[in-house]
Design a protein that fits this description.
Helices cover 49% and strands 8% of the residues. The protein has 179 residues and is mainly alpha-helical. It has a 3-stranded antiparallel beta sheet. A hairpin with a 2-residue loop joins strand 1 and strand 2. Helix 2 runs antiparallel to helix 4. The relative contact order is 0.21. The mean pLDDT is 91.
Length: 179
């Protein structure tokens, strides 16, 4: 697993989770949680709705499908999986509105989150997208590459293997996703 993608340092992964835990505002918490714990892309985060959340086994899944004015990248419809604790916190913070993040000014709202990610040490080009890659690495390590591919909604396992997953073998890092 992980031909081209490499995990950031253990310290940066921990700081990223600590940053998420430090947020008490939905404008900060919700987008980072959707990227880090559900692997959503930027446009999916912006268009995410309460109705996408479904209880599933011992967690939640988010149904990411093309609808109305939102189109999933490359038609990669499917489900993203995450913990009940994070899903319920996202839903509780979204004030019962259908859209989890108000669509008005949503892009500018994400700029502050990206600034925060850079301030803790993210120097890669798209730090919010790097959280999606951490999510892929989590599932590749916890389950397997095939499961990571499906939950990231990639058409090819090569994309997941080469660009989105590296095995997490550092002691205790997988536990960070057990909210």
């Amino acid at each position: 697993v992980g031909v081209k993608y490499r995990l950031p340092s253990k310290e940066l992964v921990i700081r990223t989770h600590e940053l998420l835990d430090s947020y008490d505002s939905p404008e900060q918490f919700v987008p980072l949680a959707l990227a880090l714990h559900f692997g959503l892309r930027r446009q999916e985060i912006i268009h995410s709705k309460r109705s996408w959340f479904q209880e599933h086994r011992d967690g939640y899944r988010i149904a990411v499908f093309t609808e109305d004015s939102f189109r999933v990248k490359a038609g990669e419809d499917g489900y993203a999986f995450g913990s009940s604790v994070i899903a319920e916190k996202i839903l509780n913070m979204s004030d019962s509105f259908d859209y989890l993040i108000p669509l008005r000014n949503s892009r500018s709202r994400l700029k502050g989150l990206v600034r925060d990610l850079r301030s803790i040490g993210w120097d890669r080009r798209l730090p919010l997208h790097e959280c999606r890659k951490l999510y892929g690495s989590f599932w590749a390590s916890k389950e397997n590459l095939f499961f990571a591919q499906k939950t990231l909604r990639h058409a090819s396992p090569l994309t997941t293997n080469d660009y989105y997953a590296d095995l997490i073998d550092e002691e205790g890092l997988l536990d960070l996703w057990s909210a």
